[in-house]
Specification:
The structure is a homodimer of 248-residue chains. Chain A is of the alpha/beta class. Chain A has a single domain, classed as Alpha/Beta hydrolase fold, catalytic domain (Rossmann fold, 3-Layer(aba) Sandwich). In chain A, strands 1-2-3-5-4-6-7-8-9 form a 9-stranded mixed beta sheet, sandwiched between helices. In chain A, strand 6, helix 4 and strand 7 form a beta-alpha-beta unit. Chain A starts with a strand and ends in a 5-residue tail after the last helix. At the A-B interface, helix 6, strand 9 and helix 7 of A face helix 6, strand 9 and helix 7 of B. Chains A, B: It comes from Nocardia lasii. Chains A, B: GO terms for molecular function: hydrolase activity. Chains A, B: This is Alpha/beta hydrolase.
Chain lengths: 248, 248
């Protein structure tokens, strides 16, 4: 892992890094300290610096003292697409053009990308934990929406370093439900109640499937954007409770 | 309204009061200040000093600076029962003895009690607001579970002083759904995901029916008791946001 840029503004140190084929970014407090680590998984079609992800990362750094890492998923954010990526992107575009639902295509594609992303996240986490300011002692949180949720599920099932996950909405299919049943990590899951793209019943079925003994569903009126301030704050408190310095 | 007792401990001033037939209790910070008012509605079969209600009241006073009022519902807490109360209590006992579900009986009875409780709460609120430390200027919050939810719905529909409501689980029937549709007050609604007494689908239908533009559903793993600490804290923050001093 090597850092390719370092800038800071408004209390946030931003460092871009490269690890093999993986491109990532790390946000941390400009005043060094014992900041716990959160991993942020972006949505399908987005990248490590998706506006909502960056806004949440800055908030978690400045208001709650976390360090946040994001990487571009395979086939995303300028990373090369393979045949699976090209086929999926073409299928999504075709369905959109025909006015057909994209849920099933996106769900299948998300699972494909997430399977490839898991070893990359694990390698990234190894590298991040080799940094002296992060270290290997502390539990790690994971937050994500859409593709980021699928990735988080598979990652948590594969890597016990993930101690808590905060999810936003995700397209649900049987493979996702099966993955959810394998998860035992504490989860907070946020869904919009009035968003035509996300089916409520599917969202509730996903929550129900989660194998975690400690899980919370937060449904809020409105659409998926903007995320209500109180939900962003709730997610930060959830992480502080599970992976924060004080354990409170 | 006159106060019949006054004690204080651990930073909480507790005053019992009587207003006509109504028996109530008021908890407030021992250090006087501009404490916003919350009304607390107890569950069916309980009373104004139900353990969970008292614990929440103390928490909201000491940790969040609220004043909290509770009253015994008609037919509850040592108040005389009328023929409706006697009939309902007998029916519930009979169903329990026969191992039959009590949901429908409890739902009907809660609506009957709540209708009688609303004018009592309004008179209590008038009296409370005539106290100099409370006054008429500030919005008022309402929290409740079970019967307390039914009462809150009818109270908020009848009295615009109720500016925010935080609810726990409630038995749902068509009359409750109809009442929920009339409500426009912001609501936070908490349900247990693994409680044999409360049907998830009914809880979600109730959330969906709420007419409020600003509403949140919080489902937590586990049963209805104990209420998770983070949910109690969430409710306090919800009230602070809507009826708190700073409006934050």
């Amino acid at each position: 892992m090597h850092f390719t840029s370092e800038t800071s503004s408004n209390g946030v140190l931003e460092r871009h890094f490269v690890l093999g084929d993986i491109s990532g970014v790390l946000w941390s407090p400009t005043i060094p300290g014992d900041a716990p680590l959160l991993l942020a998984g972006h949505a399908g079609g987005m990248h490590k610096e998706a506006p909502g992800l960056v806004a949440s990362a800055h908030y978690n750094v400045t208001d709650h003292g976390f360090t946040v890492a994001a990487v571009d998923a395979p086939g995303h954010g300028g990373r090369p697409r393979d045949s699976r990526d090209h086929a999926a992107v073409a299928a999504i575009q075709q369905a959109r053009a025909a006015g057909e639902p994209i849920d099933a295509i996106v769900s299948d594609y998300s699972m494909s990308v997430a399977r490839r992303a898991v070893p990359e996240w694990r390698a990234t986490l190894d590298a991040l934990q080799s940094l002296p300011e992060i270290g290997t002692e502390k539990p790690v949180g994971y937050g994500g929406v859409s593709l980021g949720v699928v990735t988080g599920l598979l990652l948590a099932a594969a890597d016990t370093r993930i101690a808590a996950m905060s999810f936003g909405p995700v397209f649900v299919n049987d493979a996702l439900l099966a993955a959810a049943r394998q998860v035992t990590t504490p989860v907070e899951y946020r869904i919009p109640w009035n968003d035509k793209h996300f089916d409520r019943a599917a969202g509730i079925a996903f929550f129900d499937a989660l194998g975690s003994a400690d899980k919370s569903l937060h449904a809020h009126s409105g659409r998926r954007y903007p995320v209500p301030d109180h939900e962003r704050a709730s997610s930060a408190r959830f992480f502080t409770h599970h992976v924060g310095r004080s354990g409170i």
